[in-house]
Amino acid sequence: xxxxxxxxxxxxxxxxxxxxxxxxxxxxxxxxxxxxxxxxxxxxxxxxxxxxxxxxxxxxxxxxxxxxxxxxxxxxxxxxxxxxxxxxxxxxxxxxxxxxxxxxxxxxxxxxxxxxxxxxxxxxxxxxxxxxxxxxxxxxxxxxxxxxxxxxxxxxxxxxxxxxxxxxxxxxxxxxxxxxxxxxxxxxxxxxxxxxxxxxxxxxxxxxxxxxxxxxxxxxxxxxxxxxxxxxxxxxxxxxxxxxxxxxxxxxxxxxxxxxxxxxxxxxxxxxxxxxxxxxxxxxxxxxxxxxxxxxxxxxxxxxxxxxxxxxxxxxxxxxxxxxxxxxxxxxxxxxxxxxxxxxxxxxxxxxxxxxxxxxxxxxxxxxxxxxxxxxxxxxxxxxxxxxxxxxxxxxxxxxxxxxxxxxxxxxxxxxxxxxxxxxxxxxxxxxxxxxxxxxxxxxxxxxxxxxxxxxxxxxxxxxxxxxxxxxxxxxxxxxxxxxxxxxxxxxxxxxxxxxxxxxxxxxxxxxxxxxxxxxxxxxxxxxxxxxxxxxxxxxxxxxxxxxxxxxxxxxxxxxxxxxxxxxxxxxxxxx
Length: 576
Hints:
Layout lengths: L1 E4 L2 E4 L9 H5 L5 H13 L6 H7 L2 H14 L9 H27 L11 H20 L4 E3 L4 E3 L2 H10 L1 H8 L3 H7 L9 H7 L10 H5 L7 H14 L4 H32 L22 H16 L12 H32 L1 H19 L4 H14 L7 H8 L1 H17 L2 H6 L2 H10 L1 E5 L4 E3 L14 E7 L2 E4 L5 E5 L4 E2 L15 E4 L3 E7 H8 L3 H31 L4
Antiparallel strand pairs: 1-2, 3-4, 5-12, 6-11, 7-10, 7-12, 8-9, 8-11
Helix pairs in contact: 5-6, 5-12, 5-13, 6-8, 10-13, 12-13, 13-14, 13-15, 16-17, 18-19, 19-21
């Protein structure tokens, strides 16, 4: 359907693009088939996902990807499907729970009372193992997506081959249901854990009872997968890049701190053992009632010791320490300094991005001040220039040319029309002649101008032959006040926010309309529409130009009749 102004066409598409390919290609005349079609639908590429929009760019490309999957890979779960998103949300919770419960279980739960009876803690661990095993099965039927190259591979043969090379074995080994294996082992065997055997250097088959429990720590290699799922989750809900990065850093720091806490106690068990009577008296665990506490209290003590060692809050150099305590303190202190440097660098980058416009404003203002002092400009002129700069860039600095090149003409036109739309539609001549598309084009062709108090906006010296009608520009006042003067500099009226002037001067010569002088009464922001640009804009559309001139002539005649009627009415009521 074609719409628009006179001799200025525009297009509003009425062709429907929301064709349901699933209903079109998969018939369902029974309830089981409708269930199967629903399953196929949620396994297709999700066209609502921002990640999908980033990869495929357009609706046509997404439809083509759906058709390709339905035709050639009907049994494949798309890596960007809605089902995959729901499953990744479940895996985010699963990974976050596993990364904190598994090292705690391996390190702090080593006594018989910790395993018998079967506690809720081990029920959660068992549920994590089964979910991870289900994830292994689902991964065998899911295509692959490479984030760096934005490539999607739906060939299950290549996807499974790539998965079996490495991640399959890590997922299988770390997801073995060790709580069930623990239930099958006699309680007497639990006294000889693998850590106990490593400490005593006394190996026998009973030492391997918790091997699967120790192998479950391999799940930490899936931490990058956890961060990738978290990033996609945040991108789907439109969170900013800085927020996503902050969440990733926070998750990394908390996980590293938790594992460091568990590692500190694990080193103590490996070197000193878990029998309080055999532990070196110089060890930090002998300075307080540590071994007769619950596992959670021991975890809190190790957490506090890790915190003040890594962050270097305080150190008691008078306390005696074992060699393993010295090595751990040294490693944690160096790691703490590295962590501080990294977090400080990220914080500085975040602050610089957050206040980039303000910093550029002060940087350019300082450079401008140095330049004016170098040129030895008068103090009054320097003050006026700095006032102009502060009014033009109020505490921020932005380059509209860069923004325009990044956004493109269409979005930049929408931004312009948010400001200029009410101003352009307030002019009856433009509102009656141009369509919305034409007004947007006019808005893109207008120039922003800033004038300080008493600056001359337009000067007409036609009587001396020094001015040309083609240099005239129509003004639209955004903020401020503009005074209109005659050619003899006699003040006529004031124009304020939202008003305009000069539409008739854009179309007629000086012999038909008068060209006044315009002066800024105060600091004024306005947009100008030049006569030369309007002529070039209307050159391909002669009928639009003629309609505009006819309507302007009609308005001038009507205004003349109103003025003549006002004069005659005044003469009738005047006293002789």
